Amino acid sequence: MIHKIKALYDEGQGLSIRALSEELGLSRNTVRKYLRTDETVVVAAQNERRRHQRLDCQRVYIVHLLERFPKLSSVKLARKLRAKLGTLEVSDRTLRRYVHQVKATIACAQPRYYEPVLDMVPGVQCQVDPGELRRVVIGGQERPVYFVVFVLSFSRLLYVGVSFQPIDTECFIRLHDEAFRYFGGMPEECVYDQTKMVVIAEQFRELTVNQRFHEYATAAGIHVHACEGYDPESKGKVEAGVKYVKQDGLYGDTFADEQGLRDHLQQWLEEVANARTHGTTGRVPREHFEAEERAQLRPYLTPACLGHGSLDLEPRKVDKTGLISWRANKYTVPMAYQQGRVGVREQDAQLQIHDLETGTSLAVHALAQGKGQVVRNTDHYRDHAQHLRDLEQALTHRLGAARGARLCALLKATSPRIYKDQLRGAIKLLDATETLDTELIDRLVEREHLTASTLKTYLQATERAVQRGRDPATPVPPPPTTGSAKLNAYAGLVRSSGQPELTHGAA
Q: Which residues pair with 350 in a beta bridge?
């Protein structure tokens, strides 16, 4: 503006001050001020345009916080400043603008370290990632479409496998088979995120791999490389490929049926995705692949482990009681498959149940003729009678056959509904007793009623009597009926041998 005023004024040869004021919409005093100002002063003022700001006195503190906590928001930073100063003389908007200016001028800690990745070796890596797109119109209805994207890291050649049901491990493996046959070979390794179809668990970067997928990868000869958890950027090529398939391959199109969608994607791969000039490599993926990568891929043959699908199994969900439903009846499966999935088929008036992962036979039942029946195989459940026999045998092993049998019979007669728990408690008490008083056990089994808690009371009392040098061999009285009788029986059991004090537990 000042240069324009001086040019129009032209040292008094041009417009007057009044005319300049009317022309530029400025007051005459402002025009006179600019005309008197030296141009060198104006240039210096323009070179140093930043004015003093109220928050400049707190700049050192703000920079300190941002260097330690780069993602600190201006809202929380304002709270810290108010806690330090009491009040702020600036608005929240001014503070946000000031923090934005400071962040642009200081070096903040990077959330992660990035460096360029050079894909110079063909035939080595393929990145794999599943995706889904909802509300795709197929046959006039909106449906979700599930797919898996395969990208060769060197040439960026792309393949998309499609499923119209949620992708499980079997489907994931089948789509791998499709992709490698499309490529005409397979790379040395495949890169995945930590999907349960590949990685079951991770601890200290030690991976527990899905057994079924590991079987396929081992048979095919593929090295499995799983990225760290929550780190999609480590396989950015296929992440970009998933977005590309959603936005360019499927979005905005409608399809007459499922096969129409498959045909569309195949045409899209050949005419668009693999025929375009790639933005990173600057080459057409198909031409790049044919020229430099196809010859470097290893031969691929479909492994024999994929043959389990020939059993024509129908999947069934196992409920929490180990039952599956089939034609209005229920059938048991081994409890190891509780709330899992198995495959079933009918053959020769029998229902055959198989493991979906390996095809292993799990059970064979005769088909029920009616409806609402439950066909059981007792081998699929715990044998509770055998468990009781094992506990009784363990108790008799500790006490001897005759004494143990009498104790078992007494515990069962006293508490038949919790007999199993009573046996466990008695065994635990006997194992914890350092020196077992068999005479005490003989006296106790003569009682009409006995529980594990009563046995615990007498064993503890006897142990304390021995520790204090008392004689525990006092006949056990019958069960007390009153409070005074209970105390008398207890006093008789722990009769003193000359020592003045009497110690007892809580009533």
A: 347, 366
Q: How far apart are CA 396 and CA 399, in angstroms?
A: 5
Neighbours of 504 (CB within 10 A): 11
Question: In whole angstroms, what is the distance from residue 176 CA to residue 303 CA?
Answer: 11
Number of alpha helices (DSSP H) and beta strands (DSSP E) in the chain = 18, 15
Collapse the DSSP code of 16 into the 3-class scheme (helix H, G, I; strand E, B; otherwise coil) and give the result.
coil
Buried/exposed code over 6-15 (b: 16+ C-beta within 10 A; e: otherwise): beebeeeeeb
User: What tokens were used for 438?
Assistant: 């068999």
CA–CA distance, 476 with 493 (Å, rounded to integer): 7
Pairing of β 341-347 and β 350-354? antiparallel
Helix (H) or strand (E) holding 209: strand 206-209
Could you say which DSSP state residue 358 is in?
Answer: T
Beta bridge partners of 129: 149
Q: For residues 301 and 176, is the Cβ–Cβ distance under 8 A?
A: no
Residue identified by tokens 């025929």 is 275
Q: What is the mean pLDDT of each run of 10 residues along the chain (507 residues)?
A: 76 80 86 79 62 76 82 83 80 84 68 51 91 93 95 94 91 93 93 87 79 90 82 72 92 91 94 92 94 93 68 82 90 87 86 80 88 84 75 88 90 90 91 84 89 90 80 54 47 43 39
Burial track 55-86 (b if 16+ CB lie within 10 A, e otherwise): beebeeebeebbeeeeebebeebbeebeeeee
Instruction: Write out the DSSP string of 281-338.
Output: T-S-HHHHIIIIIGGGSBP----GGGGGGGG-PEEEE--TTSEEEETTEEEE--GGGT
- Residues with Cβ within 8 Å of 375's Cβ and at least 6 positions away in sequence, in order, are 329, 330, 331, 332, 351, 365, 366, 368
Whether the CB-CB separation of 279 and 163 falls below 8 Å is answered with: no
From residue 23, alpha-carbon distances to 27, 32, 34, 139 in Å are: 10, 14, 15, 69
Residue 223, token pair as written in the block: 């090295």
| 3-state secondary structure (DSSP) of residue 406 | helix
Homologous superfamily (CATH) for 125-304: Ribonuclease H-like superfamily/Ribonuclease H (3.30.420.10)
Q: Which helix (DSSP H) or strand (DSSP E) does residue 148 occupy?
A: strand 141-152
Contact by Cβ (8 Å): 444, 450: yes
Q: What pTM value is reported for the model?
A: 0.46
Cβ atoms within 10 Å, residue 495: 12
- Residues 6 or more apart whose CB falls under 8 angstroms from that of 109 comprise 67, 70
The SS3 call for residue 169 is: helix
* Contact (Cβ atoms closer than 8 angstroms) between residue 177 and residue 217: no
Q: How far apart are CA 192 and CA 232, in angstroms?
A: 9
Cβ-contact 325, 315 below 8 angstroms: no
Beta carbons of 227 and 202 less than 8 angstroms apart: no
